[in-house]
Amino acid sequence: MTTLDTAQEARPGRTTNPLSVLATPWTVVVAVPLIISILDPERFEAIVGFAAGAFLSTLPYIAFAVLLIAWLKAAGAEASIGRAFEGRENRAIVLAALFGGLAPFCSCEVIPFIAGLLAVGAPLSAIMAFWLASPLIDPPTLLITAAALGWPYAIGKAVAAVGIGLAGGYAVKALTAGGLFKDVARGAIKRGCGCGPSPFDGRPVWRFWAEGQRIDNFSAELRANAAFLAQWLALAYVLEALLVTYVPASLMAGLVGGEGLGPIVISALVGMPAYLNSYVAPALLAGLTEQGMSPGAAMAFLVAGAVSSIPAMAAVWSLVRAPVFATYLALGVTGAIVSGIVFQMVV
Fold this sequence. Notes:
By secondary structure, this protein is mostly helical. The chain has 15 helices and no strands.
């Protein structure tokens, strides 16, 4: 799961002020071509054609991703994921890392989910495994990454998510055994905050169409996520078109090209503060790789950017103390660099 990122904190379809549409990606999508038509009319057709073609080629992936995430939400898949944290610690770490890429949560929902896990005494190691894996991948991100960068990148990011989750979970288990994390939570932790599901309540109903309320949930999620993905991908491809058109390939090749460790480390360190949501980043990285960015650097940027997303870090900071937060960031950036190195060696 990618905690559906900063921009989704105000979920699509819930706008009350008509003027708020100006604060959406559609403003940039419309404004950029207009500005290009005035300042550089000779390149207007090429830029618009590039963006439109890329968007249309991604539509099948968008459609499948929207249907899948709506189905998971309508079925109530959260309950099964929450129960994965019960039982033996080693088993919980493995399942948490695996399910981190499947949880259909948005940014606000991951906070009560984790709060509930802390409240019922789930091991910090398993929680950390989920926390590291969940921002990196989810079904829509997997498909969109494949559409923009190809399946090697999509599969590589999914493997990185599970690998970083496992490594982080077992690292925290070892540190906890050494007495480092004696005081984890910031004050009293409640089971939830009212904006998301309790991690252990209910059971999933995979044939959701037998219940009217679940059908309504499916329809609402379908519309909301279709609108959300469409606006961010339209923005991504407009920005990619600008990047390919105006940024010299030699500049990118000099900064993050080549086979060495340097470009990978630079990309990971730049990727964390320069976070782009997981639906915009693949398209921009597709442009950067065309300009000379190395595969390892691209993977490091993808991983580091997702781990450092504002909702992901806010969730950690709001619930746990500074040592746990620092460990989360350290594991994230280290995992990004290692992922980039391994990906560079494999592809």
